[in-house]
Amino acid sequence: MSALVHNLYNDETIGQWQHEKTMMHSSGIWGRQPVLKYLRLRKGNLVVDLGAGAGYPTLQMSACVGSAGRVIGIDLSEAMVTAARAHCRADNLFFEHGDITQRLLLTDELADVVTGFMVLHNLHLERMRAMFGEVGRILKSSGYAVFLTMHPDAFEKHWELDFLSYDAFALRRYRDSVEKENIQIPGRARNTAGGENSIATVYHSRQAVIQATHDAGLSLADEQDLWIDRETAVEIFGPQSIRKMPTVPIYWMLVLKRAVLSDQHAADGVLDLEADVRRGAQPIQANS
């Protein structure tokens, strides 16, 4: 994990992830923006943002929770934390250097909301499992966690976009592999202002991610597939940037909460971790 994060987010690349620029890549336009709208944070919430990077989405959340709330951003990259502290300032906003796959310096059941924007696919499976364990520990029983990551089906079909591309050799290896879990696929993401950044996806199947949340005592409350649409892509990046549109969702939003015992299993102490999904759970609203 450390090598991947430090290669992607360091002093040389940090300019493309500062300020609003982090919202001007495809993951910001079709991922971060919809998730921030979905969160509907309320005044007084305590939010922990895992893998906060240079802090721009974290700053947006601090405005939503008001002076009575608090937002804590945690990132492994010292360069990102330094930039976040310098450029994303608010009295209720704090950035800390830390490994989100290790025990965090946060107390149990502290957070009303835990977020992670484009961080899961930077973690190999065992690291992701460890991170979900920490989410389950720091999340209040009444709280929820929202994660944005690459969709498990994103590389199942061929697509060609100038503003979001992945290494052809790595994609062939992925598609030819019987066991795809933890395969790393490097790529490039273009900023609307013209800059370009290295990115990477460590592939995880939907089953592996959901199992990891279950093992951490978390339950899937909602999920959304997020698509790149042609109209927005043409408007922002131009028609020449599209050679073949994706026919699969590219980003994936997961909403998790602490798992509870179902009535029929309570006596046996068995977690009914998919009860909400089977009942057709509605999106969690912070102001409900």
What keyword list fits this structure?
288 residues; alpha/beta; Rossmann fold; seven-stranded mixed sheet; three-stranded antiparallel sheet; 12 strands; disordered C terminus
Describe this structure in words.
- The chain is α/β, with parallel strands linked by helices and 288 residues long.
- The protein has a single domain (2-278), classed as 3-Layer(aba) Sandwich (Rossmann fold), CATH 3.40.50.150.
- The chain contains 9 helices and 12 strands.
- It has helices at 2-8, 26-39, 56-65, 78-87, 125-138, 168-176, 206-215, 230-237, 275-278, and strands at 46-50, 70-75, 93-97, 111-117, 139-150, 160-161, 164-166, 184-190, 196-202, 218-226, 242-244, 251-258.
- The strands form 3 sheets. A 7-stranded mixed β-sheet has the order 3-2-1-4-5-12-10, with helices on both faces. It has a 3-stranded antiparallel β-sheet with strand order 7-8-9. The chain has a two-stranded antiparallel ribbon with strand order 6-11.
- Helix 3 links the parallel strand 1 (46-50) and strand 2.
- The radius of gyration is 19 Å and the shape is globular.
